[in-house]
UniProtKB/TrEMBL annotation:
One of its GO terms (cellular component) is plasma membrane. Residues 101-318 form the ABC transmembrane type-1 domain. It is a multi-pass membrane protein. It comes from Streptomyces roseirectus. GO terms for biological process: transmembrane transport. Belongs to the binding-protein-dependent transport system permease family. It holds the Pfam family BPD_transp_1. The chain crosses the membrane at residues 42-71, 105-126, 138-159, 186-210, 231-250, 302-320. The lineage of its organism: Bacteria, Bacillati, Actinomycetota, Actinomycetes, Kitasatosporales. PANTHER family: ABC TRANSPORTER PERMEASE PROTEIN, ABC TRANSPORTER PERMEASE PROTEIN YESP-RELATED. This is Sugar ABC transporter permease. It comes from the Bacteria. InterPro entries: ABC_transporter_permease (IPR051393), MetI-like (IPR000515), MetI-like_sf (IPR035906). It is found in: Cell membrane. Keywords: Cell membrane, Membrane, Transmembrane, Transmembrane helix, Transport.
Length: 333
């Protein structure tokens, strides 16, 4: 008895590139759909073009150029001359460069924790319900709206200078503040005071984190007899540790980038650009002096790339350390 072989009808939508009928069918988009997708993509790239152009011309391009200049002798007036690692060897042997590193590290290690402590302390107070809470939040946040502007740096310099038009009892937090900007040992404290004064941004982030801590945890701890300090140490800190890590990371990076306040408070352009006896000679200030006052763009580029590497290493260490002290909720990581 013979068998009858019937062929299945050809699948609709198959084209020449669909492969043999025995293989899986691959659908091909109609031409009009392809044209529509191309138009939508073109519109998207058109709207993104200002950002792409700005990134290429103002960020990526200068970064690549500075990486090349870091290995050259370049003074803005003559063509760059390749000198290899001479800029880096000169940098490491420069006592003023080593001093700028020391001042910057001191500012980061002292200023950043003090700013975060002030932000967390005020956030803990503002997290409690009280009259005028909205006003206090706005008042404490207001200094951060000014940012590290030139205007506030000029005011800060006037407050801490010898020429401040105040009586002889001028004080700041109970300490005689007159003449800080003229003293090589004290001018760095005025910069720390300025950064601590602008604690509004991390304060708002801390406040948002405190609002997410469940009240049930505090109530259970109170029933067990836990005091204020123990509730803070065992409940508040672990629950807001992701927010704390975020603030530590951002404020540390910002501290390494300090420039305008140190430059203005230190005296501005001229031989006294970074404070008396280089008292406010932070890293970026010395970078500015080498690049724009001494016209040594090659050396300044090498300093900039070394700063980038240092900040990247510090960031990597912070991310590595978070495994030991940052606690995330299950599934939130």
């Amino acid at each position: 008895m013979g068998t009858t072989v019937t062929h299945a009808p050809a699948l609709e939508g198959l084209t020449e590139d669909s492969g043999p009928p025995s293989g899986p069918a691959r659908l091909v988009k109609p031409p009009e759909l392809k044209r529509r997708l191309r138009r939508e993509n073109l519109a998207g790239y058109l709207f993104m073009s200002p950002w792409i152009a700005g990134f290429l011309l103002l960020t990526a391009g200068p970064m690549v150029a500075s990486l090349y200049f870091a290995f050259t002798d370049y003074n803005l007036f003559d063509p760059p001359k390749w000198i290899g690692l001479d800029n880096f060897s000169e940098m490491f042997g420069d006592p003023r460069w080593r001093h700028s590193v020391k001042v910057t590290l001191w500012y980061v290690v002292v200023g950043t924790p003090l700013k975060l402590l002030a932000a967390l302390g005020v956030a803990l107070l503002l997290a409690q319900k009280r009259r005028g809470q909205a006003f206090y939040r706005a008042a404490f946040y207001a200094p951060s709206l000014i940012g590290a502007s030139v205007s506030i740096a000029i005011v800060w310099k006037a407050i801490f200078s010898d020429d401040a038009v105040v009586d002889q009892t001028q004080q700041f937090f109970g300490i005689d503040a007159g003449g800080w900007t003229g003293d090589p040992e004290l001018i760095i404290y005025s910069l720390v005071a300025l950064t601590v004064w602008q604690f509004g941004a991390p304060m708002v982030i801390f406040l948002a984190g405190l609002k997410q801590v469940p009240r049930e945890l505090y109530e259970a701890a109170e029933m067990d007899g836990a005091g204020t300090w123990r509730r803070f140490w065992n409940i508040t800190l672990p629950m807001i540790s992701p927010v704390l890590f975020f603030n530590v990371l951002l404020e540390t990076i910002h501290s390494f980038q300090i420039f305008s306040s140190a430059y203005i408070v230190g005296g501005g352009a001229g031989g006294n650009a970074c404070g008396p006896a280089d008292g406010s000679m932070v890293y970026t200030c010395y970078l500015y002096v080498q690049g724009f006052e001494n016209s040594r763009m090659g050396l300044a580029s090498a300093m900039a790339w070394l700063l980038l590497i240092a900040v990247a290493l510090v960031t990597a260490v912070l991310f590595w350390s978070q495994k030991k002290w940052v606690h995330y909720e299950e599934g939130a990581r």
